[in-house]
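User: For my dataset I need records formatted as: sequence, then structure tokens, nothing else. Please produce one.
Assistant:
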Amino acid sequence: MEINSKTVTVNKSATDLCAYLSDAKNFEHIMPENISKFEMIRDNAFVFALSGMPEIALEVKEVEAPYKVTLGAISDKLPFTLVANIDEISDNTSACELVFKGKFNTMMAMMIKGPITKFIATLSTNLTTI
């Protein structure tokens, strides 16, 4: 299953945006309003929960500065990655697209597609405010 956000323009250089997304604690600032938990568990990992959904632990898996940051689920129960693809527009502006990729059975995919699509859209929109 793959879900792509719309590409948004961020008022940060590609280098600055990559550094921002590489720092796991910054994800608290772009989470949806209905977040019920956000806790750092390591320097590069956090656990979060949205109202009505189970807790999810993510860690920064790979950084290809300044164009790509990959986060991945820590648990094998929900195996997925969240990739931020960053394109430089100018010295102070970049474009970012979030890509969610996961391996789920058909039933699970049907259940989570809507909430994940909304979650990815919110993260993407909130990037424009940083």
